[in-house]
Amino acid sequence: MTDIQSASIVDAFVKTMKWSDATPEDVRSLVVMNLRGFWQWMHSDAMEGCPSGVDQALEARFRQGVTIRGIPVWVCADDFTSDRSVGQMWGPEQIWAIRRDDGTEFVLSDEEVGHWAGVASDSISEFPDDPDW
Q1: C-alpha triplet 103, 40, 98: angle, nearest 5°
Q2: What is the pLDDT of residues 42-83, one digit of tens each?
């Protein structure tokens, strides 16, 4: 389990919190539960991400928000081509991932690139219905 999945940073933050002696235990528990809930949402597939990451993802022809190795990312693909005369099937020339929490690059393994190239190829039609495509 990764640090993100275990929310160990939330536990470390909670340990540093200073409470007033007058703060009831149920209020303390509620604050901690809200912090955990926010952390889980922040690192879930439901979060679109920071504006920079969203803007980068929207520029790609293919984008999908997923969690890879415990990190929420946008997997993106662009420059789809094919050349059946030389055996090159339809697929993207570029595959990359962007962290949704801060918009920085997330390095995909070779296996992950291959997997997402297949997903992107299946998602983007080689022969779109729009004649102006």
Answers
A1: 20
A2: 665 555 666 667 777 777 888 888 889 888 888 999 888 777
| Helix count and strand count (H, E) for the chain | 5, 4
- Using CB atoms within 10 A of its CB, is residue 1 exposed (0-12), middle (13-18) or buried (19+)? exposed
The residue type of 12 is A
**Per the domain annotation, does 105 fall within a domain?**
yes
Ranking 4-13, 72-81, 124-133 by mean pLDDT, the lowest is: 124-133
Tokens 């901690």, located at residue: 32
The total of structural domains in the chain comes to 2
For residue 118, give the nearest of 60, 77, 85, 87 by alpha carbon.
77
The CA distances from residue 104 to 32, 83, 93, 132, in Å, are 28, 33, 20, 33
Q: How many CA atoms lie within 13 A of 78 on its CB side?
A: 9
Which letter, b or e, does each residue of 69-94 get, where b requires 16 or more Cβ atoms within 10 Å of its Cβ?
A: eebbbbbbbbebeeeeeeeeebbbee
Host domain of residue 96: 51-123
